[in-house]
Amino acid sequence: MNKEMLKKDIVISLIMIIFSLVYVCGVIWFLEPAKIYAGGVSGLSQLLRDVIYNLSNGKVSLSLGLLTIVFNIPVFIIGWKGVSKRFVIYSAISVFSQAIFLDIIPFVDFSEGRVLYGNDGLIMLYALMGGILTAVPCALILKCGGSTGGIDILGQYLAFKKNISIGMVTLIINGLLAICCGWIYGSALLCFYTIIRIIINSIVIDKIHNAYVHVSVEIITVMGEEVSRELTTQLERGVTAYKAVGMYTHQEKMVLKTIISRFQLPKLVKIVKEVDKKSFITVTKVSGVIGYFKRKTIM
Q1: Is the pLDDT of residue 174 over 60?
Q2: From CA 38, how far away is CA 79, in angstroms rounded?
Q3: In CATH, what number does 214-285 get?
Q4: Range(s) for CATH 3.30.70.120 in the chain?
Q5: Order of strands, edge to edge, in the sheet holding 214-221?
Q6: Rounded to whole angstroms, how far apart are CA atoms 201 and 209?
Q7: 13 exposure class (CB count in 10 Å sphere: 0-12, 13-18, 19+)
Q8: Measured between alpha carbons, how far is 35 from 180 in angstroms, rounded to an integer?
């Protein structure tokens, strides 16, 4: 491993830890007090802890951090085999950070002494704040090449293998957790608030994390050979070219067309502009790709 790669890994690892801290703060400060489940493996850990606590009449209280690690082990195996080894390593850093923070971050009362239970407006506010504070770091961790573990890894796997939206995967699985949340506490309203948090989570993730959203890019340039060579070399994507004429200047040009992930778009623009500063680029969202198209993980 060269120094540049080592430096990059250290920076990304620190980012994972910082965003994991923000994620855990959202869980402990807003979701837990309002009895709203975090979703994913964290939510499953909350569910199991609460079920055992209730069945034992309060005598057994399992560590939320420990449960988070245990539930993530089989998911790590899936990610290691089906997504990317580096992706799983980054995710493991995030998960272990969460496990530590879940047990050491103190609770902060933002309700100013008011009772949450029965105060629908306050619980709604906690659902919104908790949803934002857990969704944004989750999406940014995904964008950096890792995940908060659990469903995020399954979502990456399904997005990579089946081209299914990560937000949709989390929406379906977390919806089941929301129903369990309402059943355990005997409250349809808590189920409703949990679903609101889930919807916020899914929307934010799909807006910020776009590694598996594909776009069609057309590039009009007078340096078609040079641009296409750099794109195929650096992005490892195929390029189709056809001749065109600019009707204002009557100059012969080439139109290059390629399909890439939106995650790769900034890099493509940089490559093209370095070769031809006067090039013209259009981007169109692609609803699906049929035929030979090599899907790649972001790491």
Answers
A1: yes
A2: 21
A3: 3.30.70.120
A4: 214-285
A5: 240-246, 251-261, 214-221, 280-285
A6: 12
A7: middle
A8: 12
